[in-house]
Every structure is written in structure tokens, then in C-alpha cells.
Design a protein that fits this description.
single chain; about 210 residues; alpha/beta; about 35% helix; globular
Length: about 210
């Protein structure tokens, strides 16, 4: 069934949470650490993506997680959506986006890749809880530029007390990087954390 909508409105945007699988321990994440992630089956997620694309003409589906590239059925799910006219924005922190993955994202029709970067290397690595997070994000950006040149490459930065002072210099770096198509900000204001309602508020390194 095709859903009618007023013609003056832009296509609706739907967030599709594909998986909680992730290699990082981001300090601001609201998902508690999970040792054994159980994803919905590829069949189930493929059907959901297909049904969304068929029901809402031109729908924008934001594939997110976790790290959506780590879902075992990611390519089949993406194909089910793009082949039926959906516009895909793909969120990633960078790990798993090598040259081949970048090419496949382009080949399957992903129009935007939104790459998480929260500041210069020391700040980003601290916030993401991984010593190589910045390097992996930069490698993903380079791989996308080289192998998916027509795919828009956006940087998404989560803003909080821990990185606020570093943002002016960081923005200058992004502005000089020809691989970056655009920059977006998310303000961390929700005090909800993985173990309780005051996790973020009480973390002075994070929020102050």
C-alpha cells in the first residue's frame, strides 16, 4: 500500500536501527555493553526495508546502530531498499569500511554516508573508548572518497563539554579536508546513560 502525503512536504525520514553490534565503548552511548548481540534475521530486516520503500515513495532511510556494517545481511537489506526507490543514509564510525565496502556502498546505491568524528584524535579516541577510533574514521573517509566519489560524505560530531574547546580547531581541519562534503552537530543533553538516568550528568570528564 502506497502512503499518500501532501506534495509540498519533503520525503519522510525514518531511522532504521539495524544492529547494536559495535567495537567501541563510546562514553555517551545509551546502549549498555552487550556481549552477545542478537540481531533480527536478515529476512526480517530485508522485508521491513522493502516494505518501507514500497509503502512511502522516496522515503529516506537512515541505517544506524551500533555499527550497521557489522550486520551479516547488510548488503541484502540495503539492496532491498534502494532497488525500490528508497534513499539511504548510512551511519558509521568507520571500522569495517575498507575499499571494498566503500565500493559496495556506492554500487548498492547509498547516497549519503554519515561518519562520526567528535574532535581531534586524542579527544575522539577518548570519547569513543578506542585508541584507534580516529585513525579508523579517517581511513574510512579516505576509502569512501577514493572508491565512492559520488556518495556524499558527511561528518557528524556529538557536542559536549569534553570536546567543546577543541571544536574551533577541529572545524578548521574539516574545512580544509576536500573529502568532507558536510558537517553536522548533535548536542548531547540527555542525561540518560547505559546504567542509569544520571550517568552522563555525573561524568565530569564528559559533560563539564
Amino acid at each position: 500500500m502506497l502512503i499518500d502525503r501532501p506534495s509540498h512536504l519533503p520525503p519522510p525520514r525514518i531511522t532504521f536501527h539495524l544492529t547494536d553490534r559495535c567495537r567501541y565503548e563510546c562514553k555517551f552511548c545509551f546502549v549498555p555493553p552487550i556481549r552477545h548481540v542478537r540481531d533480527l534475521s536478515t529476512e526480517h530486516s530485508t522485508r521491513a526495508a522493502r516494505d518501507l520503500a514500497e509503502a512511502i515513495a522516496g522515503v529516506v532511510i537512515v541505517m544506524t546502530g551500533g555499527e550497521p556494517i557489522f550486520h551479516k545481511g547488510v548488503w541484502e537489506i540495503l539492496e532491498a531498499a534502494t532497488s525500490r526507490g528508497a534513499v539511504i543514509h548510512f551511519n558509521t564510525s568507520g571500522p569495517g569500511i575498507g575499499p571494498e565496502e566503500a565500493r559496495r556502498l556506492a554500487d548498492v546505491g547509498v547516497s549519503h554516508v554519515n561518519l562520526s568524528l567528535d574532535g581531534p584524535a586524542p579527544v575522539h579516541n577518548f570519547l569513543r573508548g578506542h585508541k584507534d577510533a580516529y585513525r579508523l574514521a579517517q581511513e574510512a573517509l579516505d576509502n569512501l572518497a577514493a572508491n565512492a566519489p559520488d556518495t556524499r560524505r558527511n561528518v557528524v560530531c556529538v557536542v559536549m563539554g569534553a570536546n567543546l574547546a577543541a571544536l574551533p580547531e577541529f572545524l578548521d581541519e574539516l574545512d580544509a579536508d576536500e573529502h568532507v562534503s558536510g558537517v553536522y552537530f548533535q548536542i548531547a543533553t540527555n542525561p540518560l546513560g547505559p546504567t542509569g538516568p544520571d550517568d552522563w550528568r555525573n561524568d565530569r570528564d564528559l559533560m563539564h
